Amino acid sequence: MDWGMKNRLSRIIKPKNGRCVMLAVDHGYFLGPTEKLEVPQRTIEPLLPYVDSVMLTRGVLRTSVNPISNVPIVLRVSGGTSIIGEDLSKETIVTSIEDSIRLNVACLALSIFVGSKYEHQTLANLSTLVDNGERYGIPILAVTAVGKELVRDARYLGLACRIAGELGAHVVKTYYCEKFEKVIEGCPVPVIIAGGKKLQKEIEVLELTFNAIRDGASGVDMGRNIWQSDNPIAMIKAVKSIVHENFSIKEASDLLEMEKKIEDKSTVVIR
Ligand code: R5P
Q1: Can you give the pTM of this predicted structure?
Q2: Distance between CA 219 and CA 211 in Å, rounded?
Q3: How far apart are the first and last CA of the chain?
């Protein structure tokens, strides 16, 4: 692997333990102003000190992240669809490799929709992006998105993750599921998990993170369960403690409660 590729990957997945805490704030690319991400800068800025990297689009990067911030950027470069459009799987590559280099990104991210109407198109997108990434030493994160009618089980997610790895993705993002170790076993590159829709109880977020790491995930690329929480800083710290410090669910939960008190105290209420 080339020096540049290794260097960028090491900024995303920490070499000391092979783990990563990525903050996902790319939802607006097809969802528009998602709840609690209406003003991206407001959501993103307070969380940056606690994450290893941040995943977002170039529009949000340029408008909402200070360029002197040293946080590694995972740039979402697939899109061209909307939640009210014909078919979410009809994605294309929407950002050039030149602009990605200009933005000094550490990684490029793109969705694949295995089993969907536009499966071939999204897998071809991934292959093109891998070729471009290899040319310039930029790793590729493949996001295994699921169509409405597809079940998120180990068989399906295992298929999608393996295909992503075979096509050359350097990291794959998927969902946690039962028999997750089978998904890990079948994927030749590191796998990280999305959080999915906001879970009802905070403890469920910690359980999800713990179980995924226990079963072989290399980390998280988590969004809504962090920033839709009433205490996003406390939540990211608790998730991070599991990923990077091998905290148990109980230890992470204790940390969460302690950090919530600190966060609540430091929140200034303007009347
Ligand atoms: C999905 O469109 C995006 O790629 C998100 O980054 C991904 O789903 C992770 O975010 P969340 O934890 O909110 O599911």
Answers
A1: 0.96
A2: 11
A3: 56
**The CATH number, out of the four listed (3.40.50.150, 1.25.40.10, 2.60.120.620, 3.20.20.70), of the domain defined by the range 3-229:** 3.20.20.70
Q: Which of 251, 249, 250, 225 is nearest to 236 (CA)?
A: 225
Report how far residue 116's alpha carbon sits from residue 113's, in angstroms, rounded to the nearest whole number. Answer: 6
Q: Is residue 260 annotated as a catalytic residue, yes or no?
A: no
Q: Is the pLDDT of residue 51 over 70?
A: yes
Cβ contact 219:15 at 8 Å: no
Which member of 6, 173, 197, 265 is catalytic? 173
Cα–Cα distance measured from residue 103 to residue 81, given in angstroms and rounded to the nearest whole number: 23
- Backbone φ and ψ for 54, nearest 5 degrees, come out as -130, 135
pLDDT of residue 271: 47
Distance from Cα 266 to the centre of ligand 1, integer Å: 28
For tokens 């009210």, the residue is 84
Write the DSSP symbol of residue 171. E
List the structure tokens of 48.
């940056």
Confidence of residue 145 (pLDDT cuts 50, 70, 90): confident
Our CA angle for 112, 11, 57, nearest 5°, is 45
Tell me how far the alpha carbon of residue 24 lies from the centroid of ligand 1, in angstroms: 6
Instruction: Tokens for 149, please give them.
Output: 């009618």
Which tokens hold the place of 184? Answer: 């890990």
Contacts of 204 (CB under 8 A, 6+ apart): none
